[in-house]
Automatic annotation (TrEMBL):
Pfam families: SLT (PF01464). Residues 109-199 form the Transglycosylase SLT domain. This is Transglycosylase SLT domain-containing protein. It comes from Sporocytophaga myxococcoides. InterPro entries: Lysozyme-like_dom_sf (IPR023346), Transglycosylase_SLT_dom_1 (IPR008258). It comes from the Bacteria.
Length: 344
């Protein structure tokens, strides 16, 4: 009897303690700026003066704060996906950075490609493809070639140029880079309608669908992860990027295997660096048409272990003009952005 009474009293005490804890927790979930600032300093993960493309990032509600924290939690875990991300970043992001800067854009825009696809050639349920997740109509509108032989949405550099053209056009509409980034997810027309319908001037004051309202926070989470991997307990080994060159093709190639061997590689490796090539030939149908084929300079495949990084610049900056005047066989520079010199 005494034992049953003791168990009953213990259960009552546990219930009372649980109710008290819930009340305390509910209070803590309220948006209290002072508590949030103490929380930020404690975990040392959320930057206090966060910017995107030189513009301040604002947290105007507890929902905004929680969305950013959620993106940090989802995208900064040390797992196979994160390791693959850093591998892709090491190979492709330096040249993407060069293109973004050549178009006169802030280099924060490179993180949109990372947020879109982790720099993998994935395809969304809506048919958006490549690093920049372009749909076919948008790709064609931005000047990319999509047909049965090639799909330039998968070209890491030409798709980047297309995205840069989008950003510059969008800036003429919105006049600020934060809205430009949001429009890449929502569409220029969709974001314009949201601004007009809600009569606000700032992206941070808009009530948007869940995906678009989280989009910028996902970009910022990727930015912080790639610049400060140690903050999230991730160790990234410093390795060399595969050396590459661009060959401009302005006449048809009927045998890609022969073309690959001519450039001291093989068809499998050629297609690994050029997933935009769908078939085994390239047809140039008019004088204005050309392709840029990425050729690995070493007879190794991307997955093989690279050597120690030499940081060698194969093309001086003065010889690079928006990557649009690369001569036949000119080498892509072994370019490493300052922001990543200690990160990968």
């Amino acid at each position: 009897m005494n034992k049953s009474l003791t168990i009953g009293l213990t259960g009552i005490l546990v219930c009372i303690s649980g109710i008290g804890f819930y009340g305390t927790l509910a209070h803590k979930l309220e948006y209290i700026p002072e508590d949030q600032l103490r929380h930020q300093r404690k975990i040392k993960r959320i930057p206090e003066d966060m910017t995107f493309a030189g513009e301040m990032v604002h947290f105007k509600s507890p929902d905004a704060y929680l969305k950013y924290y959620r993106e940090l939690k989802l995208n900064t875990q040390s797992n196979s996906s994160t390791r693959l991300l850093f591998r892709n970043v090491r190979i492709w992001l330096p040249e993407i950075t060069r293109i973004v800067e050549a178009y006169g854009l802030h280099d924060d825009f490179k993180y949109l490609a990372v947020a879109e696809s982790n720099l993998s050639n994935s395809v969304s349920p809506k048919g958006a493809a490549g690093f920049w997740q372009l749909t076919e109509p948008t790709a064609l509108e931005l000047g990319l070639i999509v047909n049965e032989e090639v799909d330039e949405r998968y070209h890491p550099f030409r798709a980047t140029k297309a995205a840069c053209r989008f950003f510059k056009k969008s800036y003429k509409v919105f006049g600020n880079w934060t809205s430009v980034a949001a429009s890449y997810n929502r569409g220029v027309g969709g974001l314009q309608r949201a601004f007009n319908n809600q009569s606000v001037n700032s992206y941070y004051d808009l009530a948007l669908n869940d995906e678009t309202s989280r989009y910028l926070f996902r970009v910022l989470a990727m930015k912080d992860l790639l610049n400060h991997p140690a903050k999230y307990g991730i160790t990234v080994l410093r390795k060399q990027r595969p050396k590459m060159k661009l060959v401009r093709v302005d006449s048809s190639i009927t045998n890609l295997d022969k073309f690959a061997r001519l450039h001291k590689t093989d068809l499998v490796t050629l297609k690994e660096f050029n997933p935009w090539i769908l078939g085994n030939k390239l047809t140039v149908s008019d004088k204005k048409m050309n392709f840029e084929v990425i050729i690995p300079l070493e007879a190794t495949r991307i997955a093989l272990k690279p050597q120690v990084d030499t940081n060698k610049l194969l093309i001086p900056d003065k010889d690079v003009d928006k990557l649009s005047n690369i001569m036949n066989g000119a080498s892509i520079g072994e370019f490493e952005p300052d922001a990543f010199k200690n990160s990968y």
